[in-house]
Design goal:
CATH superfamily: Hypothetical protein
Radius of gyration: 12 Å
Number of helices: 3
Mean pLDDT: 92
CATH class: Alpha Beta
Distance between the termini: 16 Å
Strand order of the largest sheet: 1-2-3
Oligomer: single chain
Largest sheet: 3 strands, antiparallel
Number of strands: 3
Number of domains: 1
Shape: globular
Structural class: alpha+beta
CATH topology: Metal Transport, Frataxin, Chain A
């Protein structure tokens, strides 16, 4: 099982300690690229089909909020990737 596949399996469980870097790795595994979504800490991830996921990059720590991980899982299911 690849690192990305292990992270996807972990993400689906909505862990309380999922990091921003782990999320970026998962989305890169689904061919999403990170870009700025205006000012501040908002980021947009876009795939080759133009589908977008908007997220707030956590700071000063890098631990994702559980609601944000839930949103990503929901979007990936909506896009038919999970």
């Amino acid at each position: 099982m690849s690192k990305t596949a292990k992270l996807v399996a972990r993400m689906i469980c909505i862990p309380a300690d999922f990091t921003w870097d782990e999320l970026c790795t998962v989305l890169a595994g689904f061919s999403f690229t990170e870009g700025k979504a205006g000012g501040g800490s908002y980021r947009t991830f876009t795939d080759k089909h133009g589908r977008k996921i908007f997220l707030h990059e956590p700071h000063p720590g890098k631990i994702m909020r559980r609601y944000a991980v839930r949103e990503v899982v929901s979007k990936l299911k909506e896009f038919g990737l999970l």
